[in-house]
Amino acid sequence: MLRRGFQGAARLSHHRALLGASCILPRLNPTSAFGSSTDSLVSRFCPKETDLKDYALPNASWCPDMLSLYQEFLEKTKADGWIKLPSFKSNRDHIQGLKLPSGLAVTSDERDWRIFTRCIQVEGQGYEYVIFFHPSKKRSVCLFQPGPYLEGAPGFAHGGSLAAMMDETFSKTAYLAGEGLFTLSLSIRFKNLIPVGSLAVLNVDVDKIEDQKLYMSCVTQSRDQKTVYAKSSGVFLQLQLEQE
Amino acid sequence: MLRRGFQGAARLSHHRALLGASCILPRLNPTSAFGSSTDSLVSRFCPKETDLKDYALPNASWCPDMLSLYQEFLEKTKADGWIKLPSFKSNRDHIQGLKLPSGLAVTSDERDWRIFTRCIQVEGQGYEYVIFFHPSKKRSVCLFQPGPYLEGAPGFAHGGSLAAMMDETFSKTAYLAGEGLFTLSLSIRFKNLIPVGSLAVLNVDVDKIEDQKLYMSCVTQSRDQKTVYAKSSGVFLQLQLEQE
Fold first, then answer.
1. Which residue in chain A is spatially nearest to B233 when comparing CA positions?
2. For A170, phi and psi rounded to 5 degrees?
3. How far apart, in whole angstroms, are the C-alpha atoms of residue B62 and residue B151?
4. Mean pLDDT for back-to-back runs of 10 residues, chain B (244 residues)
5. Across the interface, do B160 and A150 touch by the CB < 8 Å criterion?
6. Domains of chain A as residue ranges with CATH
7. In its UniProt record, which GO terms are filed under biological process (chains A, B) (predicted)?
8. What's CA A187's distance to the chain center, in Å?
């Protein structure tokens, strides 16, 4: 019922309401729980063997803060239940083998598709980031280092680049914590500017899952937590996906 | 007083509160109006003679909708008071000759600084956009065509790429309409996905200027106005700038 509801919406042409509230929020059938467990979503999302390049690995551009916090979280993946999420060039690589609503079906195509936050491939110039996720806590931490191609005010990251980093971290968290797929809303209060080349830490929590929606919050701050860069909230829509 | 207040804040090191409310919102001195007229800001922003490349000009990647609406607005620049804003590789090029708060002073630097929304220079792959501004209406229209490097869901623009485009259009509007410089908040409700390679039109209005803040709203829709992609609001902080 739910899938059919969204498929109906998704079949509409590109220029019609894909996400209009009347289309995307069909009445929830209380007997149809969201099927995929977080474990199965995580194992699909983090393939053990793949030839795809993982962009969420340290490189020479990472600042010492970013490197050492990365190592700290890597230790936590061994004992504390944290998982390091791989990050491929395209979202298409993450959703291989999932049956998507037909309007979103992946068609073969020669174009060089890139997920926005991996749009710049020169190390250190654009987005450097890695996301760690904790399934049972439904929490994520994103280590983010903006490069000089992400500038807004001279020497500082563009507010929009942080907005996109938040949306992306929310998005991956929503997907893994409860099949959340689409951003319904994003609200940000900016407090301080992030210097280009420095580390900002995004702490994301799923606050509740209700009525097919995931409600999340994020505090972005310096590593020492003394400077809050921004606070934000995001609401994502759940969509049940099936394996092919 | 106002300048000193922000300069004080800006002198703080990068990791201290640049934009903490207590620092950036000193009590407004009612006798000190914001000095620069919109006309002088616009003429500074749109230099008649410059060697800088303007990225807001048509290229072979623009879709027919984008091209024809561009031509329509170009006509409006001749009679209806609209202004086409140039778009350089870096914000640093726009603010040459302005005395900035010291924490934001532009230092000479060999790095390839790019404003985030011009981070990708390959035509058609990333951001294609042009902003038109109407000084007396305090209104902007941004024609935005996302390329395949801005992908989120397969075939559609990442929500974060639209968020950044909104922030950038708000930012330029806020600056020209009233010396608005910094995003304080950004709030977006997403309604529909924007297909990669198609035109989205951002309609921005300055709703009010009060208490050193510009309140703006934006409706993003298809050219035929039948599909609303998103609605958003933004609040920007005014900062008085002086010519050197």
1. A187
2. -55, -45
3. 17
4. 33 37 39 64 83 95 98 96 94 69 66 95 97 97 98 95 98 92 95 97 97 96 98 92 60
5. no
6. 38-45+52-96+111-238 (3.10.129.10)
7. cardiolipin acyl-chain remodeling; long-chain fatty-acyl-CoA metabolic process
8. 16
